C-alpha cells in the first residue's frame, strides 16, 4: 500500500513539473514581423502614395521611409532556446507510469494472475529454476506440486512427466499426470494412469475423485459411485459435494432424465453441484448461458480443457433448459 501511494505521488509530481511551463506568463510583446510582411506592406504603401495628397501623403511617405529603414536593419527573430526539462519530465512520468503498471498490476510470471499471487508466482519460478538446474526427483516434485496448486497446469504436466522419466514408479506423478490428462479431455489415457495409481496407493483420495469423474463422463454411473465412495473412505475433503454427486448418480442410474439430474450427472463434477465452479468455470450467472446454441456446441464438441460430453437429444434439451434458469 505504501509503495502504491509513493508511486502515485511521484506521478502527480512529474505531471505538475511537466505542465508547469504551460501555466507561466505569456510573452509581453509579440514577435517582430517577418521580412515578407514588411515588403508586402511597403509595396502596398507605394501604390497608395500615388493617389494621395496633402497630409495623408506625408504620413504615408513617412511610413514608407520607416519600413525601408526597418528592412535595411532587419534580422530574423532568434529562435527560442530549447528547454529539455519539460520533455525529460514528461518522459520520466511515462516511464514511471509504465514501471508502476508493470510492477503493481500486470502478471509477469507463470501462475501469477493477480497482485496477491505474486509471492506464490515467484516461489513457483524459483522452484522451476531449481528443478531444471538439478534435475532431482524431489525438486521436480516440489515444482509440480506448486504449479498444480497455482493451476499452472502446463508447468505441472512438464514437471510430473520429467519425474516419470527418472522414476516411472512414482505414484504421485502417475496420479497427477492422469488428472491432467482428464482435464485436457484425454479420458481414455487418464483412466489408465489413474487406475494404475489407485491400485498402487488406494489411500490417495484425489485419485478416486477424478477416476469417478471419468466414469461419470463415460456414463458408467455404478463405477463412478464406487469410486466416489472410495474417495469418502479415504477422507476426501469435498465430502458434502461428493455425497451430492453420489445421490444424483444413483438417481440417474434409476432413469432420471430431468435437467438437474443430467447436470449433476454430467457437469457437476467439474462445474460444481450448485454451478458455483470447481475445476471448470462458474456457470451460475454466466452470460454464455443466454446463448443456447453456443452452450450446445461447447457441450457436444468440447472447448479448451473441457472434453466433449456425449448426450442424447432428450438429455441435451433438458440440460439446456436447466442451464437457462441458473
From TrEMBL:
Residues 35-62 form a coiled coil. InterPro entries: Cyt_c-like_dom, Cyt_c-like_dom_sf, Cytochrome_c550/c551-like, TPR-like_helical_dom_sf, TPR_rpt. The keyword Membrane applies. The chain crosses the membrane at residues 85-104. TPR repeats lie at residues 205-238. It comes from the Bacteria. GO terms for molecular function: electron transfer activity; heme binding; metal ion binding. Pfam families: Cytochrome_CBB3, TPR_16. Residues 254-326 form the Cytochrome c domain. PROSITE patterns: CYTC (PS51007), TPR (PS50005). The keyword Coiled coil applies. Keywords: Coiled coil, Electron transport, Heme, Iron, Membrane, Metal-binding, TPR repeat, Transmembrane, Transmembrane helix, Transport. SMART domains: TPR (SM00028). This is Tetratricopeptide repeat protein.
Amino acid at each position: 500500500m505504501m509503495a502504491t501511494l509513493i508511486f502515485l505521488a511521484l506521478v502527480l509530481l512529474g505531471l505538475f513539473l511537466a505542465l508547469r511551463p504551460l501555466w507561466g506568463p505569456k510573452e509581453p510583446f509579440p514577435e517582430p514581423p517577418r521580412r515578407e510582411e514588411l515588403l508586402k506592406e511597403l509595396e502596398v504603401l507605394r501604390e497608395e502614395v500615388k493617389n494621395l495628397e496633402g497630409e495623408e501623403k506625408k504620413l504615408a511617405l513617412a511610413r514608407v521611409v520607416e519600413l525601408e529603414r526597418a528592412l535595411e536593419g532587419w534580422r530574423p527573430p532568434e529562435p527560442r532556446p530549447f528547454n529539455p526539462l519539460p520533455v525529460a519530465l514528461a518522459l520520466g512520468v511515462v516511464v514511471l507510469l509504465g514501471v508502476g503498471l508493470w510492477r503493481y498490476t500486470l502478471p509477469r510470471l507463470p501462475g501469477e494472475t493477480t497482485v496477491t499471487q505474486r509471492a506464490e508466482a515467484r516461489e513457483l519460478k524459483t522452484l522451476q529454476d531449481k528443478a531444471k538446474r538439478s534435475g532431482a526427483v524431489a525438486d521436480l516434485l516440489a515444482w509440480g506440486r506448486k504449479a498444480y496448486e497455482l493451476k499452472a497446469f502446463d508447468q505441472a504436466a512438464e514437471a510430473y512427466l520429467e519425474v516419470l522419466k527418472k522414476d516411472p514408479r512414482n505414484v504421485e506423478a502417475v496420479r497427477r499426470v492422469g488428472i491432467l490428462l482428464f482435464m485436457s479431455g484425454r479420458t481414455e489415457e487418464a483412466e489408465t494412469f489413474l487406475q494404475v495409481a489407485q491400485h498402487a496407493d488406494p489411500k490417495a483420495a484425489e485419485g478416486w475423485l477424478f477416476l469417478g469423474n471419468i466414469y461419470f463422463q463415460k456414463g458408467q454411473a455404478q463405477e463412478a459411485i464406487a469410486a466416489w465412495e472410495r474417495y469418502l473412505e479415504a477422507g476426501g475433503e469435498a465430502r458434502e459435494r461428493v455425497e451430492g454427486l453420489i445421490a444424483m448418480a444413483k438417481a440417474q442410474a434409476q432413469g432420471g432424465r430431468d435437467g438437474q439430474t443430467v447436470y449433476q450427472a454430467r457437469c457437476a463434477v467439474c462445474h460444481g453441484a450448485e454451478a458455483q465452479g470447481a475445476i471448470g468455470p462458474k456457470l451460475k450467472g454466466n452470460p454464455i448461458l443466454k446463448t443456447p446454441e453456443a452452450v450446445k456446441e461447447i457441450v457436444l464438441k468440447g472447448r479448451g480443457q473441457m472434453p466433449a460430453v456425449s448426450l442424447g437429444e432428450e438429455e441435451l434439451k433438458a440440460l439446456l433448459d436447466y442451464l437457462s434458469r441458473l
